[in-house]
């Protein structure tokens, strides 16, 4: 396989990893107003991702760096045309990170509630805007002969982009609630089961709409991997339904696993519908960025391939070790004991 095509799928896998891992981070943050009935329960929810949220975010850095090195033309057009939404995502991530670190610095209720609100905002904004961005990439945006984006922010706020944004927000929210149920006990866990049940219907409706709409776009574009789009879409639907059933049965591990599988195959559905383009032009198909005309040289891609072969297994091993170390539940008794020790 040509290295440019290989790296198209490598970048896709990196974004899949990011959306799965930071996706449940976003979901946990968005669930805070629904599951945090008091300060102890709010701490319980936040502490489920306390040791791992920053590690999960490194995936987007790696994905962005690989995109820059492997597809510089794609990177340039994407980051210049999508500058404002990507800036909003960055600011939201900063806001969320600061809130995690500063929330516990004072005991005042107003102080903590203020940072709690920033955690919710800093989680919801990226969860929605990432979907809007990916949806627009798949659908196509106005690009001229110089490979420059000629639209505006309003161009990106089209029906398909907004629908995909709502879908990612709901799927990440559900994924995060599954994680809270997996990692907590008592009332928070019971509330998480109920919240996941209530979220499941809108998540199914929006996810189904995204799969059908994306398949229609792929058919209209005569996508060469159309069969894979249908397969991944069907698997995403199946894993989503399986996660809902597992949640109803209180099988938290399976619910979270199937929820992760839903995001994996949903992102793959979008990614495969894009192939062999990287940014289709809605102005003129001849102006589109493809894998071939947007990629780096073979020499650059060869060096990147060797570096990925060496370092990616180390990153995966370290992340697996981190999750193993922090595998235990965050219990209410533990939070109360820690609070009493401080006071």
Automatic annotation (TrEMBL):
Its EC number is 1.10.3.-. Its main location: membrane. Pfam families: Cyt_bd_oxida_II (PF02322). InterPro entries: Cyt-d_oxidase_su2 (IPR003317). It is an enzyme of class 1 (oxidoreductase). It is found in: Cell membrane. It is a multi-pass membrane protein. GO terms for cellular component: cytochrome complex; plasma membrane. One of its GO terms (biological process) is aerobic electron transport chain. Keywords: Cell membrane, Electron transport, Heme, Iron, Membrane, Metal-binding, Oxidoreductase, Transmembrane, Transmembrane helix, Transport. The keyword Amino-acid biosynthesis does not apply. One of its GO terms (molecular function) is metal ion binding. The chain crosses the membrane at residues 6-32, 77-98, 119-140, 160-181, 201-219, 225-248, 255-279, 299-326. The keyword Phosphoprotein does not apply. Belongs to the cytochrome ubiquinol oxidase subunit 2 family. This is Cytochrome d ubiquinol oxidase subunit II. It comes from Microbacterium marinum.
């Amino acid at each position: 396989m040509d290295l440019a095509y290989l790296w198209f799928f490598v970048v896709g896998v990196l974004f899949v990893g990011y959306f799965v891992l930071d996706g449940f981070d976003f979901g946990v943050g968005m669930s805070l107003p629904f599951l945090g009935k008091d300060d102890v329960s709010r701490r319980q929810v936040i502490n489920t991702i306390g040791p791992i949220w920053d590690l999960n975010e490194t995936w987007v850095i790696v994905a962005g760096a690989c995109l820059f090195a492997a597809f510089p033309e794609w990177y340039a057009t994407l980051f210049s045309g999508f500058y404002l939404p990507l800036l909003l995502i960055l600011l939201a991530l900063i806001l969320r990170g600061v809130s995690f670190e500063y929330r516990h610095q004072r005991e005042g209720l107003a102080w903590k509630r203020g940072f709690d609100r920033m955690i919710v905002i800093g989680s919801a904004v990226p969860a929605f805007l990432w979907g809007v961005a990916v949806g627009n990439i798949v659908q196509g945006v106005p690009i001229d002969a110089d490979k420059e984006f000629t639209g505006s922010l309003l161009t990106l706020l089209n029906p398909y982009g907004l629908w995909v944004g709502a879908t990612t927000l709901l799927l990440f929210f559900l994924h995060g609630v599954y994680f809270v149920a997996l990692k907590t006990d008592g009332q928070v866990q019971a509330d998480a089961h109920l919240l996941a049940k209530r979220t499941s219907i809108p998540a199914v409706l929006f996810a189904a709409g995204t799969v059908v709409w994306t398949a229609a776009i792929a058919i209209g574009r005569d996508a060469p991997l159309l069969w894979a789009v249908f397969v991944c879409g069907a698997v995403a639907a199946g894993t989503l339904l399986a996660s809902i059933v597992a949640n109803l049965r209180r099988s938290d591990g399976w619910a979270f696993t199937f929820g992760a599988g839903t995001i994996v195959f949903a992102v793959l559905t979008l990614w495969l519908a894009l192939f062999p383009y990287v940014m289709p032009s809605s102005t003129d198909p001849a102006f589109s960025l493809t894998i071939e005309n947007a990629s780096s040289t073979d020499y650059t891609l060869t060096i990147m391939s060797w570096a990925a072969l060496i370092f990616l297994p180390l990153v995966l091993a370290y992340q697996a070790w981190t999750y193993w170390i922090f595998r235990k539940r965050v219990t209410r008794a533990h939070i109360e004991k820690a609070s009493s020790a401080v006071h």
